Each structure stands twice: as C-alpha cells, then as structure tokens.
Amino acid sequence: MESHLPASQRVVVTGLGVVASLGHDVDTFWKNVLAGQCGIDRVALFDPTNFACQIGAEVRDWSAEQHMDPKEARRNDRYTQFGFVAAKQAFKDSAIDMAAEDSDRVGVLIGSGIGGMQTYETQLKKLFEGGPRKVSPFTIPSLIVNMCSGLFAIEIGARGPNFGIVSACATATHAIGEAMHMIKRGDADVMIAGGAEAAITPFAYASFCSMKAMSTRNDDPKHSSRPFDLGRDGFVMGEGAGVLVLESLEHAQKRGARIYCEVTGYAATCDAFHITQPDPEGKGLSMAMKRALAASKIAPESVDYINAHGTSTPYNDKFETLAIKKVFGEYARKVAISSTKSMTGHLLGAAGGIESVISVKTIQTREIAPTINLSEPDPECDLDYVPNVKRSANVKTVLSNNLGFGGQNAAVVFRAL
C-alpha cells in the first residue's frame, strides 16, 4: 500500500549494526543466520559447573579495544561496548556526515534490559573483599542503562534526544519504535536506536536458574534453544547488540542515502496480568500487533513474515502462537514465522535490536531465516515456523514481536519502499 504521508513524516532505515555470537558485523551475522548456524555453547565467561543452566550464546573472541578507544573500553561495561560498536557500525553503514548535519537534530536511543551486570558483580566483590575504597570511581557510569546512548552521542557529537529505555526483553523494539515517533513528530531528523545486553554473568544466571526459566539441555548446547518444539525446556541467554539508523524519508532522500526499507508502524502495550508470565489469552501482544498494523495502514494479510519473540519457553511460544491467530485469523496458517532465538539465544533487552536487523535484511535479501531445532512441533504451536532451513520469498512486509517481564509488549512493522 502506497503511503500518503509527507516525506518528512515517513521514517526509513539507512544503517544497520550487530554484535552477536554469530558475528561481530552484519554480513557475517546474516550469513550465519541464513545458514542455520547456532551460536550457543558451554559458557566460558565464568565457570558454570554449579549452575543448572551451563550454556549461552556468548560473543567470543571479543576485543573492544579494536573498535573503540582502549581507555573508554576499560571504563565501560561489556554491554556498553557491544552497543557502542553496533552503533558505530550502523552509523558508518548509513554514511551520515555529521559535518553536514544539524547535530541538535541527531539523537541516540539505545536501551538495555539489565545494563552493567558485569560491573555490578565485579565492584560488589571489591566492596565486600577490600572495602569501599576499592570500588572504582567509574562504577556508576559503567553500570547505568543510559550510558551507551550517552557515550555514542559524545563520539559523534549528537545533541538531539538521548536516553536509555528499559522494558526487559521488549527494550530494543521500544527504543526503535519511540525513535520512529521522535522523527515523525519533528523532534529529530536522525535517530540511532536499538539495544545492548551482556548479562552472561554468575549472578544473572543464578537468578534466572532460580526461576527455572532457562534450558538445562547442557549436554547438547546447539540443540538447546527449541522454539515451538514439544521438547523445549526454557530459554538460552545470548549477549550482544543490534542498532538501526532511522531517518525521515525527506532527510534521507535529500542526502542521497541508500535506504533499506521503511518503518511504518509500532505499538506498545501491557498485559497487566503477571510479572513474568505472558497473558494466556495473548491479549496484550495481539493488541500490540493490531495497533502496529493499523498505524501502518496495512491489513494482516499483507504481512509476509513475522519474526516471533519465540523464546523456547513452554508459556511464551504457546501464547504467542495464540496471539498471532487472534490477529491474523485463517491467514495465520499462511504467513511465514520464525524464531531466530533458536540460533542467537535470547539477548534480553537487545533481542529486538538484532531481530529488527534480521527483519530488515529479510526484506533486502528476500531470504527468510529458519527456526532451527524444530523436530517435533508442539500440537499447540501449529503454524508455519520455517523449520530448520531458510526459505526464499518475495518479502515486502515484516512484523517483529518482543515481550518483556512486567507484561510489556512491543511490535514493529518494516516495509519495502
């Protein structure tokens, strides 16, 4: 459907950046995703022997000093490093020249669900073992959730809207959607938006394990994340960052930018049901999808692909399937759906960032990423989840979903121009 909005109110994607277990750049990451590679293995960042879950999708062979000032790398948490580097990639990909921009109209909105967990643990240990004088003066700047946005704004000199969104696993999608709205209402011409997370730490693992939320398929890491499969037993944590550069269509066209696609709609809702469990009737998520499609002026039947939240937990996959059926009716059985968390693990607050990158790349390349490890479908999860092998298709419209503890839901729609 052709948009009748003025170009100044239409928002497009002009840059992509990723740091993840499957690659430290977009091209490597996308190649591995389409190949159905799995980034999950035994945890190496700490000794997981005494933990119920001993697996995760870690960013291996990581050296932040190769991508940012070594002093800044040492002062900042791992989550900030990931977000900074992904933002740097996306900004470079967009080819924006800050010397030609009004820096007051360039903003950064990179969120995190948890923030500097590694810093928390490291500095608390110093406090308990050595007393208050041993705690680093950089502790607070390193662990707070808005620091990634602030640090990257300093890097490029962006003085526009800047803060960190926190909504658990819906964080990055909320950041991208809110950044879109900022451009639409005229607060900025350019927004760098997404999410970053680095919570593969002993305290985070102990906490999630106590909730019995994580997979314990420790003897078979590559097959542990099994969205929509009858044998799924919990999510597997991942880490990294996904960041997009968004611009008004008018601004992008004026500077001759390469445009990936348009962001046509976004919605945020709350289940108001339970602190960790999704609404069993899918009310909140289905409303988010309906509103995102309505904002896009797109009928459900126009959606070619859904990147599902698909966490590989017993509740989420069943209830998300129900929510999709509520929104799409009979067409739910025809639309292609996949959960890329089967390969990347669940990046918590960064999940929507890398999944938005996947959504954009799906439109660009006309290749749909698979849901791997789907060998015995759950009878209650009976839709087309693109099992195990990628699929070529003329994808023009993509819907991406994310849900977070607290009942937060987010849905965003990407569409080819």
UniProtKB/TrEMBL annotation:
Residues 8-416 form the Ketosynthase family 3 (KS3) domain. Keywords: Acyltransferase, Cell inner membrane, Cell membrane, Fatty acid biosynthesis, Fatty acid metabolism, Lipid biosynthesis, Lipid metabolism, Membrane, Nodulation, Transferase, Transmembrane, Transmembrane helix. One of its GO terms (biological process) is fatty acid biosynthetic process. It catalyses: a fatty acyl-[ACP] + malonyl-[ACP] + H(+) = a 3-oxoacyl-[ACP] + holo-[ACP] + CO2; (9Z)-hexadecenoyl-[ACP] + malonyl-[ACP] + H(+) = 3-oxo-(11Z)-octadecenoyl-[ACP] + holo-[ACP] + CO2. Its main location: membrane. Its EC number is 2.3.1.179. It is found in: Cell inner membrane. The keyword Transmembrane applies. Coiled coil: none annotated. GO terms for molecular function: 3-oxoacyl-[acyl-carrier-protein] synthase activity. SMART domains: PKS_KS. Pathway: Lipid metabolism; fatty acid biosynthesis. Transmembrane segments: none annotated. The active site is at C169. GO terms for cellular component: plasma membrane. It is an enzyme of class 2 (transferase). Belongs to the thiolase-like superfamily. Beta-ketoacyl-ACP synthases family. PANTHER family: 3-OXOACYL-[ACYL-CARRIER-PROTEIN] SYNTHASE, POLYKETIDE SYNTHASE-RELATED. Involved in the type II fatty acid elongation cycle. Catalyzes the elongation of a wide range of acyl-ACP by the addition of two carbons from malonyl-ACP to an acyl acceptor. Can efficiently catalyze the conversion of palmitoleoyl-ACP (cis-hexadec-9-enoyl-ACP) to cis-vaccenoyl-ACP (cis-octadec-11-enoyl-ACP), an essential step in the thermal regulation of fatty acid composition. Proposed to synthesize NOD factor fatty acyl chain. Involved in the synthesis of a highly unsaturated fatty acid moiety, which forms part of a lipo-oligosaccharide that is responsible for host specificity. NCBIfam families: fabF, PRK07314.1. This is 3-oxoacyl-[acyl-carrier-protein] synthase 2. It comes from Nibricoccus aquaticus.
